[in-house]
Design a protein that fits this description.
By secondary structure, the chain is an alpha/beta fold. The protein folds into 2 domains: 32-65 and 346-458, Aspartate Aminotransferase, domain 1 (Alpha-Beta Complex), CATH 3.90.1150.10; 68-344, Aspartate Aminotransferase, domain 2, CATH 3.40.640. Helix content is 42%, strand content 15%. It has a 7-stranded mixed β-sheet, sandwiched between helices. The chain has a 4-stranded mixed β-sheet with strand order 1-2-3-13. Strands 11-12-15-14 form a 4-stranded antiparallel β-sheet, with helices on one face. It comes from Sulfitobacter noctilucicola. Its cofactor is pyridoxal 5'-phosphate. It holds the Pfam family Aminotran_3. GO terms for molecular function: 4-aminobutyrate:pyruvate transaminase activity; adenosylmethionine-8-amino-7-oxononanoate transaminase activity; pyridoxal phosphate binding.
Length: 461
Amino acid sequence: MNLRPNSDEARDVAYHLHGYTNARAHGDRGPIIVDRGEGIHVFDSNGKRYIEGMAGLWSVALGFDETRLMDAAFAQMEKLPFSHTFSHRTHGPAIDLAEKLISISPVPMSKVFFTNSGSEANDTIVKMIWYRSNALGLHDKKKIISRLGGYHGVTVAAASMTGLPTNHKSFDLPIDGFLHTTSPHYYREGRDAESETEFATRCADDLDAMIQAEGPDTIAAFIAEPVMGAGGVVVPPATYWEKIQAVLAKYDILLIADEVICAFGRTGNMFGSTTFGIKPDIITMSKQLTSSYFPFSAFMMNDRVYEPIADESNNIGVLGHGYTGGGHPVGAAVALENLKIIEERDLVANAAARGNELLAGLAHFEDHPLVGNVRGVGLIAALEVIAPDGRTDDFPVGQLGAKMSAIMLKNGLVSRNMGDALAFCPPLIINSAEVKKILHIVEKSLDELSVAVRPDLYQNA
């Protein structure tokens, strides 16, 4: 690609290192510059309009032009643009938001701790769990179990909990004390003739065996997303969460629900924990908390977690942890307005209804020769493409998914491929006509993919 000298694309290539990007390929391709947003759409610097089928990064619940969030940010900027929550200080938005989050929690919670991103929240949770174990005199009870394919962030501890190879390779991760058990990906991991409930039993048995092998007294917590996001939109099989929680209860192991993607309506309930009957000790939140209009995150903990931490801070004299921007007044004000809008407009119910339409529409493609699986819950779904005629040697994992994603982008729909699974996670404000537009683009793109991979069959079809 020849980039015009001094163009925005050329300047980006010259000066900007991007996350989740092949740095060398970026030098050749250059970026798509997203210029503005409107509803569920974004526009690039050339004026082309796209349906943002990923809500940015699973996160823009209210779309890209919600003036009430902008007004909330501006009003707070005028009143108090910054204050912190160290050393017995606080401010109104942090107080109000903590109270609000506790009030809507799917299970009884005691305290909220504010951070700046999902990664940072999960990293802090690890420190708090270690702190708690020391407070209880359980100095060996420090290991954290997560799942293969799970995603919990990219800081050192959070990336160690993440179960994806690209987050580990050449970073010297995971660090010691972080373990990964079976992914609940029934489509990929289920055995021949194994039912969903049998697979769920095997997942629970694998977890139990890992705990026994490591020593129950060394395992502090288990962390998992209600629905896996970056691992491929993996919806847990029937009875999975019931059986996993029984194992954790047996060994007195804390449960962390990473709701960074699922919380605030994504699964058709305010929290994914409600959707799947999860009763966590800790809940991580970010993304849709502010519709990503402001970097902000938090986690809630119950008394079982909080009380030993509080006692230890008293013994030491201080809880030696916190962030300058944690509980930022502007972010807290935006979060409060965001939650108010979600409730006023009944967007959780809209997510459930529009999600049913999206999933039903995607299910019509399951008979397509290049579609292997369709899955989802609420307003999060995936369509997994497969090699034609079983020719897996000709199409390494991820190649078809990348092709399909590129074709959909050309056709005006932003998706994201995780391997060969194409994710759909549009803003909660989406309407039925926009869902139909997504499905139309998916159908058109599948036809184009068919021509690209089997021109001998489909070129003149």
